[in-house]
Each structure stands twice: as structure tokens, then as C-alpha cells.
Write a structure and sequence with these properties.
The complex is a heterodimer of chains A (about 130) and B (about 140). Chain A has one domain (about 10-120). In chain A, helix 1 (about 10-30) runs antiparallel to helix 4. With about 130 residues, chain A is mainly α. Chain A contains four helices and two strands; from the N terminus they run αβααβα. Chain B is an alpha+beta fold and about 140 residues long. Chain B has one domain. Chain B is about 40% helix and about 25% strand. Chain B has helices at about 5-30, 105-135; strands at about 45-50, 55-60, 60-65, 70-75, 85, 100. In chain B, the strands form three sheets. A two-stranded antiparallel ribbon of chain B has the order 1-4. Chain B starts with a helix and ends in a 7-residue tail after the last helix. The chains are: A mainly alpha (about 130), B alpha+beta (about 140). The interface of A and B includes residues 26, 27, 33, 42 and 114 of A.
């Protein structure tokens, strides 16, 4: 039986929602500086590192909450060449629309997970 | 997560693009403002933007970004020579009958206008996206 309340899903989803919100900030920053000379675009590093939580079969290991702390998302310079302003508005807006959808998926997943816990608490009566 | 930061960043972006629009409008409005001499003529202005870097602070055990966005560094006159037009009857004409007009580059100004407009729109889209995300997070744990 899986431990349903204290498992890593809630923590991982929370971090992923944080990452999506931070990415929104990064994209907003890139768009705001679309015409700033010498600006270097920023991004958020999260999903790449979460791959380390996968085991050999492509399943996410049931990670301990303490282990998850090192996977927190952070901002980083995402400039391709590091010289001059390389923001293109279309790419940023496309990435933003993708990020918004991704965020909605994560929120829905978290909601469903919490609903599952609620179901267990109510012994499935509702 | 601090959604106010995303709003603030987009708002600063909109403000700078609006400044760019204002300055472009001023340049175009003044393209026929004759000067009493070549030195006293209106000089087309240029907006110089500077980024406000995201700074990080430690809050509740997590790295949180504050600041960010863009700010107006300066509005500087462009280094362009005035346009000299032969108009002997003009009250501001010099001894050779030449009148100085600002060297406004129409093509560049229209390019600036459109770029600023598109960038402004992109900032609005970014702000709406942040609003949608903030509203969606309120649905967490809702019956849906």
C-alpha cells in the first residue's frame, strides 16, 4: 500500500508549479527587456534535473522529501551566445503559452491528488 | 510563489514601451520644426532602456526572486546632422538661404513605432498569462 498522504507527489507537484510560476517571471522579464541593448535572456532550471529522479524503467522513484530539497527550481542565464540581446518576442510568447498550459495541467494534477486523499479520508462515501 | 513580481515586471515593460512610443511621436511631430540655426534645431530623441536584474533573497528556506523588469536609463538626443533646406524667404533662413530642420529618419521612427507597439502587446499578453496562472492556482483542491 502506498503512503497516500506523505508521499513525494505533493512536494514534486508543488515544486513544478513553483517552477512554472518562476518561468512566467523569467519570460515576463525577457519580454519586458525585448528592446534593452545587451540584455541576456534568463530561464528556469528545473525539469532537466528532475530527470535524475527517474529510475532505469522511466518511473519516478519514490523520493524522500529530504532528497527533493536539492531539486528546487532556480533562475539562470539562458542566453545562447552571451553577446547582445537575443530575445525574440515570438519565441517568448510561444514559450509563455506553453508554460501557462503546463501550469494548468500541474494545478489539475495536484487538485486530483488532493481529491484522492479526500476520498480516502471519507472512506469513499462521497 | 510571488505573482505580483510577474505583474510588476510586465508593467515596467509596458511603461518603457509607452515611453518609446511617446518619444517616437515627439520626433515625428517635430520633423518640421525649423530651428533658428543649425545648432538650435530640435534633435531626434532616443530611448535607452536598462534591465533591472532579478535579485535573490532567502525567504522561508527558498530562493525567492525580487526586482526584475526594465527601467528607463535615459532619453538622449541622437547624433544626427540637421536637414538643411533651401528656403530663402523663411524667417529662420541663414545668409545662404538655408533653413535647418531636424534630421528625423522617418523609416527608423516608423520601425521604432511598430517595434514598441508589438513589444507592448507582448507585455500585455505576459501579464494576462500571469493573471490566468494566479487565478488557476486558486482552483487547487477545488471540486473540478
Amino acid at each position: 500500500m502506498l503512503p497516500i498522504i506523505d508521499n513525494s507527489t505533493t512536494a514534486l507537484l508543488g515544486m513544478a508549479i513553483d517552477a512554472a510560476a518562476m518561468r512566467q517571471q523569467a519570460l515576463a522579464q525577457n519580454i519586458a527587456n525585448a528592446n534593452t541593448p545587451g540584455y541576456q535572456r534568463i530561464g528556469v532550471n528545473f525539469e532537466e534535473r528532475v530527470n535524475a529522479l527517474m529510475d532505469g524503467t522511466g518511473q519516478v522513484r519514490a523520493a524522500a522529501s529530504s532528497e527533493l530539497a536539492s531539486f528546487r527550481p532556480y533562475f539562470q542565464i539562458a542566453s545562447a551566445d552571451g553577446v547582445g540581446n537575443d530575445v525574440s518576442l515570438d519565441t517568448e510568447v510561444a514559450a509563455m503559452s506553453e508554460n501557462t498550459l503546463h501550469h494548468q495541467v500541474l494545478v489539475k494534477a495536484l487538485s486530483k491528488h488532493l481529491a484522492l486523499i479526500g476520498l480516502a479520508i471519507n472512506e469513499g462515501k462521497r | 510563489m510571488d505573482y505580483a513580481a510577474a505583474f510588476r515586471i510586465s508593467a515596467s515593460g509596458m511603461a518603457i514601451e509607452k515611453t518609446r512610443l511617446d518619444v517616437t511621436a515627439a520626433n515625428i511631430a517635430n520633423m518640421h520644426s525649423a530651428g533658428t540655426s543649425a545648432g538650435a534645431v530640435y534633435r531626434p530623441m532616443k530611448v535607452v532602456a536598462a534591465t533591472v536584474p532579478l535579485t535573490f533573497s532567502q525567504q522561508f528556506g527558498a530562493l525567492v526572486a525580487t526586482g526584475g523588469g526594465v527601467q528607463l536609463a535615459s532619453v538622449e538626443p541622437a547624433q544626427v546632422a540637421p536637414r538643411m533646406v533651401y528656403e530663402p524667404g523663411h524667417p529662420y533662413a541663414d545668409a545662404q538661404g538655408m533653413v535647418a530642420y531636424p534630421g528625423v529618419d522617418h523609416t527608423a521612427e516608423m520601425m521604432n513605432l511598430n517595434t514598441a507597439l508589438r513589444a507592448y502587446e507582448a507585455n500585455v499578453v505576459a501579464m494576462n498569462a500571469a493573471r490566468t496562472m494566479a487565478a488557476r492556482t486558486l482552483d487547487i483542491g477545488g471540486q473540478s
